[in-house]
Amino acid sequence: MTVLQTYDDLQPDEKEVSDAIWDCYKEHAPELYAKLKFNTENHQRPYHCGREHDENDLSSHTHDYWCTAWPTGFKEQFSDIVRKDNPSPFAGYLHNSDSLDALPQLEPLLEGMLYKGTLARMVGHSGGMKSFVCLDLVAAMGWMQPWHGLRTRSTAVKSLYVVAEGAEGIRARKTALERHYGRKLENVTFFTRAIQIDSEAYEWRQFTQVVKSGGYDLVVLDTQARCSVGMEENSNREAGQLVATLDRLIQDTGASVLLVHHSTGDQSTTGGTLKGRGAGAIRAALQTEIFVRRDRKANLITVTTDKSKDDAERKVVLEPQVKELDGLSDYWGDPLTSVVLIDAVPRIKGLRKDEPAVGSETVEAMAERFHQTAPDKTPTVVNVREVLGVRQAKAMEVARFLREAEAA
User: Is 289 exposed, middle or buried (0-12, 13-18, 19+ CB in 10 A)?
Assistant: First the structure.
């Protein structure tokens, strides 16, 4: 028979087991815990018992000493508690036809583009104004306002925007946006440094807690590259690990995640074709992939959802407009400027860059405008071009329409 010993006499590993047993009794089996007798000199811990016990006999644990062995009866009781507190990892994922029909529909945050509890990505060329588009749409969702014709959720979307790239310029962009709309940003929090997407990292676990405790609906990671330093971008295995980590963030917090990512090549080599840089495993896991295309000549930005698992494609055309920020200056004292995005006025193909845009005017409407403006002039190409102020190709099209109309 082992000599009796106190808690302080235990080895570190024995103390660890003893603490676990003691805490479990206290939390989950108070009726058994109440039977335990404590050291009269130290009420913080019971004595330890080194004697052998019948583990099926809980009464053997009502003596003056504490045991490091789990009694079988309590093991069974504790297992029931564990099962109740920690249901099967598959609970809620196995469905028959009826329960599948009962699953809730995807909840849109932004019509056709962003959905609650999903992974999305925004892709565009470097310098293609992806971050401006991102800031513009999180502002609209925070204000519960339509985003350039697309509906947002009826309740405010709370966003955590990780500015991992170009944090210095976010203040000017935010200020320009607020002045343009005449109101302060709401429900948007900025995290002005990179956070690495690494399930093993302490910082990432802390970040997950920030997202959860803050009640954020959307986490924007701008950019994917700056938040995955050291990852082999072309490795599907490492990309799969990144997706798994983001899926766990979504599962643990209920938030959606929007990655901002650079496309392959540049505008000069790829034209309007866009593809997210790196392995295809990430694209395959996305609910939606949003592409941002910038046409510098026309001064237009086109935002489309070329990939959407459960919705029709969407298209938004925006025009960047430079704003001078009165009262703000740069290091040299020069006035600060930034850009806001406004709805683009539809343009007629063939207009010169310096020509005014004329709605979505059809050839018929242009022909009518020619007659109203110059009723006495013959509809020649030269006259049409002079009166309407359009290019040769468009003037030829309008003149042809007018001649055919007269012949009819």
Answer: buried
